[in-house]
Design a protein that fits this description.
By secondary structure, this protein is mainly beta. It has one domain. The protein is built from 1 helix and 17 strands. The longest helix is centred in the N-terminal third of the chain and has 7 residues. It is globular and about 45 Å long.
């Protein structure tokens, strides 16, 4: 099926219809779930959630609603914040999903690692892609907060940000099983270099 449009290159700053952002999901046959911690109606427990107007509250919960290798997409709203405080605090454990972070700069959907230096996000399923994520360090000397253990993990356009008196030991560690790892436009933003590393 061919699609003709007056804007064949899309919309550089996005597009909305009835104040709802339109996301290009034409290449996916899967489910689309929204996550937005800033929305007063966000919930991980109520049925019928995961829509733009009734989003899930956490990425972790949305991942649990996905079906492996179904082309499912999770859209993380601008301004969303998620905190990882322990080892395996966030598990990307469903194969073939894409997680898109909306927003720009500090307003992007953000995952912060804090409380314990072992706090991490485990990538344990193959073919997971993250687009435009913002990761921040909330504690000094984090060790491997992005822990990749599965094949074909991709980060496209992401950033890692340290802060005041915070220096991350290593923001991403890949196991031998993490074949096909790709980082496109991944940017490390140093803090004040006042940490221990």
């Amino acid at each position: 099926m061919s699609i003709s449009a007056n804007y064949p290159n899309g919309f550089a700053k996005g597009h909305t219809s009835f104040e709802i952002p339109l996301i290009d999901v034409m290449n996916s046959d899967g489910n689309v779930f929204w996550v937005d911690s800033t929305n007063g109606l966000a919930s991980d427990s109520a049925a019928g959630r995961g829509t733009f107007n009734l989003p899930f509250a956490t990425i972790d919960y949305a991942i649990g609603r996905c079906t492996a290798n179904n082309g499912d997409i999770i859209i993380v709203a601008a301004g969303h914040t998620e905190t990882v405080i322990a080892a395996a605090g966030l598990a990307l454990d469903v194969a073939g999903i894409t997680i898109r972070f909306m927003g720009e700069g500090a307003n992007r959907g953000t995952i912060t690692f804090t409380t314990a230096v072992t706090a991490d996000m485990n990538v344990d399923a193959a073919n997971v892609t993250m687009i435009n994520p913002r990761f921040t360090a909330g504690i000094d000397a984090l060790t491997a907060p992005i822990d990749v253990n599965a094949a074909n993990f991709k980060i496209i356009g992401g950033t890692w940000e340290d802060g005041t008196s915070i220096d991350t030991t290593d923001c991403l560690v890949a196991a031998a099983t993490a074949t096909g790892l790709e980082l496109h436009g991944f940017e490390y933003i140093a803090g004040d270099e006042g940490g221990t590393q």
